[in-house]
Design a protein that fits this description.
It is a single chain. The chain is an alpha/beta fold. The chain has 15 helices and eleven strands. Strand 2, helix 5 and strand 3 form a beta-alpha-beta unit.
């Protein structure tokens, strides 16, 4: 049964469907592993034992009656602590929301529960989700699976750790500038940033209303496809027959290749070579307009964040980690007409990007230009924190700024991921491309 902790969500679902795994037993294996794990309190903010057991028993009854609700009916997953859970605290990694207990589930949690997914609990996260590092001295900093002295990536930090350490079959996080994809790549997982607006954010604690998205952190592309379908209450993407032969990819050069560290650069180059060997044509591409988009990203994100958090900050801002506080407060200085002008310009840049990338099946780039930074140094060196945070979020932010769907895949190098971006609403095609790329990189 301990092998279940390391199985894909898809395989667990198949085992339940075949009568080889009872969801009650599966749930108990996970709950026992969570409770016994020495890093539990750094990964889970709250474990929902009672809810998980009730949901697992219902899934078991359905399986025995041949009435399963979805391929993942009975599979246990974790939820980032910004998705509301009825009767259980949702605090978004900040003392400003300590003791906040919602009376209803977030919409995506409601839908996922209706598809049979079992809620194990709430995972720790970067405070208010406003950093890509995963460092949170206010509540907890989860571990990185590849380096005990490094941060795990954020802001869905505990989400990534819960899967990487065998304490959830999959996890649900949010992605505003890379918060699903960074912890996925730094913990050797698959992470999907869905198209903005595809999945409901109702009942989730907002960071930036114009950029927040919901997405899964998983062990495989198949898992990502199945979890996505469970989150939206639909049918999963058919991944059978996915191939890279005849695919034409752009290898983005603008911004994303600047200041690349040696290890992630080498991992990316090796992965590109594997994709070429599998039949993909890869063409270097410059999109100079992206430079201006990044120049505007500070005001766009900070003003949006300040609008969502200003009331709580006025009341309890002294409870925040000062680095996060400073980043949010920068949005106070952004004038409304400048914010609106930036959005007008960003829409024009999105059109230019769409035109430049239209001839390609997907756009490739390194997932991150850096490796997971040292936790102690982040705590003691202000400049190091600032520089590493901006670099961690840089490459992933392309998809958020350009309004894309995005997928990160692990490579043969620990904590190094490769990213594939496609146009908005092309999530299904992205997953098929990802399945073929995953096979080539294995």
């Amino acid at each position: 049964m301990q092998d279940w902790l390391w199985a894909t969500a898809a395989d667990l679902g198949r085992g339940i469907g075949a009568g080889e795994i009872d969801p009650v037993d599966l749930c108990e294996v996970y709950l026992t592993a969570i409770d016994a794990h020495p890093l539990r309190d750094r990964i889970y903010a709250r474990v929902t034992h009672d809810r998980a057991r009730v949901e697992a028993k219902a899934a078991s009854d359905r399986a025995k009656a041949g009435q399963r609700l979805s391929p993942l009916d009975g599979v246990p997953i974790s939820w980032k602590d910004l998705f509301d859970t009825a009767g259980v605290a949702t605090e978004a990694g900040t003392k400003m929301m300590e003791g906040r207990v919602p009376d209803r589930d977030a919409e995506v949690l409601r839908v996922a529960t209706g598809m049979g997914l079992v809620c194990l609990g709430k995972t720790h996260m970067t405070e208010i989700a406003f950093s890509g590092l995963g460092y949170n001295p206010v509540t907890a900093t989860p571990p990185c699976v590849n380096d005990a002295e490094a941060v795990p990536g954020g802001s869905s930090s505990g989400a990534g750790a819960s899967v990487a350490f065998g304490l959830a079959a999959a996890a649900i996080g949010s992605d505003t500038g890379g918060s699903v994809r960074i912890p996925s790549m730094w913990n050797d997982l698959v992470g999907l940033k869905t198209t903005f607006g595809r999945l409901s954010v109702e009942g989730s604690v907002a960071l930036c209303s114009e950029f927040d998205t919901v997405g899964p952190l998983c062990r495989s592309v198949e898992d990502a496809a199945l979890v996505l379908s469970a989150l939206e209450g639909g049918s999963p993407v058919d991944l059978k027959g996915a191939s890279l032969k005849g695919m034409r990819f752009a290898a983005l050069r603008t911004v994303v290749m600047d200041d690349m560290r040696e290890v992630p650069l080498s991992g990316y180059q090796t992965s590109v070579a594997k994709l070429e060997a599998a039949g993909a044509e890869i063409v270097p591409l410059e999109v100079p307009e992206l430079t201006r988009a990044f120049e505007m990203s500070g005001p766009l994100f900070t003003a949006d964040a300040y609008a969502n958090w200003r009331d709580l900050i006025k009341q309890d801002g002294d409870k925040m980690y000062w680095q996060i506080y400073n980043r949010v407060m920068a949005g106070k200085e952004v004038l409304a007409h400048d914010f609106l002008a930036c959005w007008d310009e960003l829409r024009a840049i999105r059109a230019a990007y769409a035109s430049a990338t239209a001839p390609f099946d997907a756009v490739l780039c390194p997932g991150s230009p850096i490796m997971p930074p040292n936790c102690e140094k982040l705590a003691t060196d202000e400049e190091y924190y600032l520089s590493e945070n901006l670099l961690a979020l840089r490459n992933t932010r392309v998809a958020n700024l350009m309004g894309l769907a995005s997928l990160v895949l692990p490579t043969s190098v620990p904590s190094v991921g490769i990213m594939l971006n496609v146009a908005a609403d092309d999530d299904a095609r992205l997953l098929r491309i990802g399945a073929a790329a995953e096979a080539a990189l294995a």
